[in-house]
Amino acid sequence: MIGPGTGVRVYGACGVTDMRKGIADLAALTQDVLRQKPTGGAVFAFRGRRGDRLKLLYWDGQGFCLYYKVLERGRFRWPAMTEGAARLTSAQLAMLW
After folding, report:
1. How many structural domains comprise the chain?
2. 63-71: long-range contacts, CB 8 A cutoff, minimum separation 24
């Protein structure tokens, strides 16, 4: 799988996100809730209520890429904050990817 390069900024949306949301709704969340520009080259991570689903939204310069991952066992570890954004490292992104 081709992903963003190293050194990319990564933001995790704290709390839970409705996993029915598509690209347009997630891009709106990045702007309205996370206060970030969705086309700014950062990766935005969103976790579902049960913790076993993750969506990564990324602008590659031509369009949005949406990566959706569902774990068979376990949960994604996530910041305890209920709203806002948490900055993640490139290493943490690699573990999610």
Report:
1. 1
2. 64/23, 64/27, 64/38, 66/22, 66/23, 66/26, 67/1, 67/3, 67/97, 68/19, 69/96
* Amino acid letter, residue 72: E
Expressed as residue numbers, the domain containing 23 is 10-96
- Per-residue tokens: 73: 């066992």
* Residue pLDDT, tens place only, 20-63: 999 999 999 999 888 999 999 899 999 888 989 999 999 999 99
**pTM for this predicted structure:** 0.82
